[in-house]
TrEMBL record, chain A:
Keywords: Ubl conjugation pathway. It comes from Dipteronia sinensis. This is SKP1-like protein. Residues 22-80 form the SKP1 component POZ domain. Pathway: Protein modification; protein ubiquitination. Transmembrane segments: none annotated. One of its GO terms (biological process) is protein ubiquitination. Belongs to the SKP1 family. Part of a SCF (SKP1-cullin-F-box) protein ligase complex. Residues 123-169 form the SKP1 component dimerisation domain. Involved in ubiquitination and subsequent proteasomal degradation of target proteins. Together with CUL1, RBX1 and a F-box protein, it forms a SCF E3 ubiquitin ligase complex. The functional specificity of this complex depends on the type of F-box protein. In the SCF complex, it serves as an adapter that links the F-box protein to CUL1. SUPFAM superfamilies: POZ domain, Skp1 dimerisation domain-like.
From TrEMBL, chain B:
Gene3D superfamilies: 1.20.1280.50. InterPro entries: F-box-like_dom_sf, F-box_BR-signaling, F-box_dom, KIB1-4_b-propeller. PANTHER family: F-BOX PROTEIN SKIP23-LIKE (PTHR44259:SF108), OS07G0183000 PROTEIN-RELATED (PTHR44259). Residues 133-211 form the KIB1-4 beta-propeller domain. This is F-box domain-containing protein. It comes from Dipteronia sinensis. Residues 72-107 form the F-box domain.
Length: 172, 235
């Protein structure tokens, strides 16, 4: 593998790109992405696979769609050391993920949360969980249930007790 | 290598389109439009992707269950909540959220950025033991059933209420959990003098009440006596 990569590098004259190993990731819906190993190892899960030499064939990324995986790869690209020189620029770019304005943003963040959790990407997980915490801010319990499409699973007695005890939390 | 970049670009264009479709301009598309090529296979792939995205958009969020979210992820979310009132609203949503919103996961309770609630005086003829608190962050008042505080004068420190009734029984009360700690009676203090206006006296008297962790004692600072701190053993 390494000799082939070196040969390829010498023929193309591109030493930086050519010497980097590529990993093949396959999303749940069958979309295939080839990603530089140095980038993909931002995921602790994938890093573990690489360290254990389990990343030689296609890596299936279960429960993550191609659309979400593309977003994750975009995240990795931006967070690669040296990709963005300016810290401020990176924060500005990240700011698109850290607010949830509507339900489509909410669904994107959910997908990213699941992917970040499965692939164990601390930076992305931190960003998405902060976004959800920010979205919760100022919402009453009923508003939260409506926004996140959550049905209360408390039984009638518990629900009544909760409403009575924390009446203010349910008021808009 | 070329094939890889092309594939990546298609995927990223897909995201750009979605954002536009949702009328959000967050995703910068200026680089993408430059790089668009009239490549036939790329177009075909794009069409397939668009169809899939449209299908995803039309079908209501399959597989997205915020109530089934992983417990560890929920805990991470809860740990990032700054305001105690949001923490309480979270805990009332459903059982998984309630189990994540434990006191241990609320790290920010005593942070300085926590906006205090202002406790309002009780309304006349209030039989439900409701007390109103004005939330500065929400700009409205919230009511809490606080039976323990009715007919008591209340003072506060670090989220606790120090309550004193007409019989001069003192206790510490957490208004959210309603957990309360009975403190020794006022007349057990050494320099206790009976007075015609005892309530007024004690309101002037105790300036600050605090826990002394290592000795399981409570310290009471008295107004006007700068060096006087009385320690009362809890057990």
């Amino acid at each position: 593998m390494s000799t082939a990569a070196t040969a390829d590098a010498s023929s193309s004259g591109d030493t930086t790109e050519g010497s980097v190993r590529l990993l093949t990731l396959q999303s749940e819906d069958g979309e295939v992405f080839e990603v530089k190993e140095t980038i993909a190892t931002q995921s602790v899960t994938i890093k573990g696979m690489v360290d254990d030499d389990c990343a030689t064939s296609t890596i299936p990324v279960c429960n993550v769609t191609g659309r979400t995986l593309a977003m994750v790869i975009e995240w990795w690209n931006k967070h690669e050391i040296g990709a963005v020189s300016n810290e401020k620029e990176l924060k500005e770019w990240e700011s698109q993920f850290d607010t949830i304005d509507d339900k489509s943003d909410r669904d994107d963040v959910y997908d990213l949360l699941m992917a970040a959790n499965y692939l164990n990407i601390p930076t992305l997980l931190d960003c998405c969980t902060s976004a959800v915490a920010e979205a919760i801010k100022g919402k009453s319990t009923d508003e939260m249930r409506e926004f996140f499409d959550i049905k209360s699973d408390f039984d009638e007695k518990e629900e009544d007790a909760l409403r009575k005890e924390n009446q203010w939390a349910f008021e808009n | 290598m070329l094939q890889v970049t092309k594939q990546m670009r298609i995927a990223i264009i897909g995201i750009g389109r979605i954002r536009i479709f949702h009328q959000s301009t967050k995703f910068s598309s200026k680089d993408f439009s430059k790089k668009k090529r009239a490549n036939r296979s790329a177009k075909l792939k794009q069409c397939q992707l668009d169809a899939r995205i449209e299908q995803q958009w039309l079908s209501p969020a399959i597989g997205i269950n915020w109530d089934q979210i992983n417990g560890d992820v929920l805990e991470e979310i809860v740990k990032r909540i700054n305001l105690y009132e949001n923490f309480v609203t979270c805990s009332c949503v459903c059982t998984p959220w309630r189990s994540a919103a434990t006191k241990e996961n609320f790290n920010n309770r005593f942070r300085s950025n926590q906006m205090p609630w202002l406790m309002l005086s009780p309304e006349e003829g209030n039989i439900d033991h409701l007390r109103s608190f004005y939330s500065l962050s929400r700009g409205k008042s919230n009511q809490i059933v606080l039976k323990e505080a009715s007919d008591h004068k209340c003072f506060s420190s670090k989220g606790w209420l120090l309550t004193i009734n007409k019989k001069l029984n003192i206790s510490l009360l957490d208004p959210f959990s309603r957990f309360h700690i009975e403190l020794p009676h006022m007349n057990t203090f050494g320099d206790w003098v009976d007075d015609n206006e005892p309530l007024r006296k004690c309101a002037m008297f105790i300036n600050k009440c605090f826990f002394i962790w290592d000795s399981i004692e409570i310290g009471l600072c008295f107004n006007g006596y700068s060096r006087r701190i009385r320690k009362i053993s809890l057990f």
